C-alpha cells in the first residue's frame, strides 16, 4: 500500500509518499528555520501562515516525484491507498493546516484518513528505507528526544506503548535551544551547540541531573547551572565552546545512562533512538556505546520532522484496520502513552 503522509506540527512542512511502510517514493520538507531565526524561536502564527503557502505546491511536487498523477474528485492518484496526517502534539494552528488538507484530500479521493501521533511518527522513522530483516524487532525500547519531548517507551508490538520515563520539566531539545541563547549561538540551538562543541574539551564539569531511583529526566537545573556560569563575573566569551561541550556531554551522558538502565530491566530486542535531537552525532555515539542492546537510529535526514515518518506510522495503523472519521480534530497536547 502507498500512503501519503502530511506533517505540519511545528515549522517544517513535510509531504511524502511511502510504500509498504518502509520504501520512500518521495519525501519533500520545506524548512522555516531562516524565517524564525530572526526571532530566536518558532512564532506559531508565522509557522501556520507559511504552511498555508507551502503545502499545496509541496503536495503537487511530491505526487509527481512519486510517479503518481494529481488525482481528481472521487478518483485518487493511481496507486494511492490512504492519507496519514499528524494531529498532535504540536502547535494548534500549524496542525490545523495539515489536518484540514488531509481531510479534504481523503474526502475528495474517497480514501481512508489516518491520524498519527507526532511522537509515534518519529519512532517509525526507524522503519524507513530498511529491508525487512534490518527493521526494528519487537519487543523494543524507544528513546524519543526532541524539542518538546524526552521519553523512554516500551513497545511490545506495533501501536502498543508503555511509558517508562519522561522529562519532568524541560525536554532535551528545549534545553539545547535555551542554552544556545544563553551562549549567544543562533537558532536552532541543537545544531549550533553541536557545532560549537565539536573537537572541544568539555569545561567545566556540570552537575548531572540523575534523579536517582527514577527513569525520568530533568534538564531545567542544568540549564540554570549554565546561566549562573554565564552571568558570573569570571565568565569570558572564549570559554563558550568548552561550556557548550560540557552542556552537550552532560545531556548525552544522562540520556544514554538512563536508557541503558531501562534496557537492563526490560526484555527488549533493540532500542530505537528517534526525534530531532537524535540527529546529534555525539548522542548517537554515546547511546550506541552505552546501551546493552542493538541501537537503531534513523538517517539524520529523517530524524527531524518529515512526512515520510507520518506515512510509515499511518501504514501500520491502516494495516490494523484503523480509520479516523471526519470529526478528527487537532490535539496539541496529545499523549502517546499514559504517564
Give the helix/strand layout.
Layout: E1 2-7, E2 12-19, E3 23-31, H1 33-37, H2 44-65, E4 80-88, H3 92-109, E5 113-117, H4 118-124, E6 140-145, E7 150-155, E8 162-166, H5 172-182, H6 189-197, H7 220-231, H8 240-265, E9 270-274, H9 281-290, E10 295-296, H10 307-319
Parallel strand pairs: 1-4, 4-5, 6-9, 9-10
Antiparallel strand pairs: 1-2, 2-3, 6-7, 7-8
Helix pairs in contact: 2-3, 4-10, 5-6, 5-7, 5-8, 6-8, 8-9
Output the number of helix runs. Answer: 10
Query: What is the name of the CATH superfamily of the largest domain?
Result: ATPase, nucleotide binding domain
Remind me, CATH topology of the largest domain? Answer: Nucleotidyltransferase, domain 5
Count of DSSP strands = 10
User: How many distinct folded domains?
Assistant: 2
**What is the gyration radius calculated from CA atoms?**
20 Å
Spans of at least 5 consecutive residues with low confidence: none
How would you characterize this protein structure?
- The chain is of the alpha/beta class and 339 residues long.
- The chain has 2 domains: 2-125 and 302-319, Nucleotidyltransferase, domain 5, CATH 3.30.420; 137-298, Nucleotidyltransferase, domain 5, CATH 3.30.420.
- 39% of the residues lie in helices and 18% in strands.
- The protein contains 10 helices and 10 strands.
- The chain has helices spanning 33-37, 44-65, 92-109, 118-124, 172-182, 189-197, 220-231, 240-265, 281-290, 307-319; strands at 2-7, 12-19, 23-31, 80-88, 113-117, 140-145, 150-155, 162-166, 270-274, 295-296.
- The strands form 2 sheets. The chain has a 5-stranded mixed sheet, with helices on both faces.
- Helix 5 runs antiparallel to helix 8 (240-265), helix 6 (189-197) packs across helix 8 and helix 8 packs parallel to helix 9 (281-290).
- The longest helix is centred in the last third of the chain and has 26 residues, at 240-265.
- The chain is globular and about 70 Å long.
Amino acid at each position: 500500500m502507498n500512503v501519503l503522509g502530511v506533517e505540519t506540527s511545528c515549522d517544517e512542512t513535510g509531504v511524502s509518499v511511502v510504500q509498504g511502510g518502509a520504501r520512500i517514493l518521495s519525501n519533500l520538507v520545506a524548512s522555516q528555520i531562516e524565517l524564525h531565526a530572526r526571532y530566536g524561536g518558532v512564532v506559531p502564527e508565522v509557522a501556520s501562515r507559511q504552511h498555508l503557502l507551502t503545502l499545496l505546491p509541496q503536495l503537487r511536487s511530491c505526487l509527481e516525484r512519486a510517479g503518481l498523477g494529481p488525482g481528481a474528485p472521487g478518483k485518487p492518484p493511481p496507486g494511492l491507498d490512504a492519507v496519514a496526517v499528524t494531529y498532535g502534539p504540536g502547535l494548534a494552528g500549524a496542525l490545523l493546516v495539515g489536518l484540514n488538507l488531509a481531510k479534504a484530500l481523503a474526502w475528495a479521493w474517497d480514501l481512508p484518513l489516518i491520524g498519527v501521533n507526532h511522537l509515534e511518527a518519529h519512532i517509525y522513522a526507524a522503519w524507513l528505507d530498511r529491508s525487512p530483516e534490518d527493521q526494528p524487532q519487537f519487543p523494543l525500547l524507544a528513546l524519543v528526544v526532541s524539542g518538546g519531548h524526552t521519553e523512554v517507551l516500551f513497545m511490545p508490538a506495533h501501536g502498543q506503548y508503555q511509558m517508562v520515563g519522561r522529562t519532568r520539566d524541560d525536554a532535551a531539545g528545549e534545553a539545547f535551544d535555551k542554552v544556545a541563547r544563553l551562549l549567544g549561538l543562533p537558532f536552532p540551538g541543537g545544531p549550533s551547540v553541536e557545532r560549537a562543541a565539536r573537537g572541544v574539551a568539555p569545561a567545566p564539569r556540570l552537575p548531572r541531573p540523575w534523579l536517582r531511583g527514577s527513569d525520568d529526566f530533568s534538564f531545567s537545573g542544568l540549564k540554570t547551572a549554565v546561566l549562573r556560569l554565564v552571568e558570573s563575573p569570571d565568565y569570558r566569551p572564549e570559554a563558550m565552546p568548552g561550556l557548550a561541550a560540557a552542556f552537550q556531554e552532560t545531556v548525552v551522558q544522562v540520556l544514554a545512562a538512563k536508557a541503558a538502565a531501562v534496557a537492563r530491566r526490560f526484555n527488549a530486542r533493540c532500542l530505537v533512538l528517534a526525534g530531532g535531537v537524535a540527529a546529534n552525532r555525539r548522542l548517537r555515539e554515546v547511546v550506541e556505546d552505552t546501551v546493552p542492546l542493538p541501537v537503531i537510529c534513523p538517517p539524520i535526514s529523517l530524524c527531524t520532522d518529515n512526512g515520510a515518518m507520518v506515512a510509515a506510522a499511518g501504514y501500520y495503523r491502516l494495516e490494523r484496520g484503523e480509520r479516523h472519521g471526519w470529526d478528527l480534530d487537532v490535539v496539541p497536547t496529545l499523549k502517546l502513552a499514559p504517564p
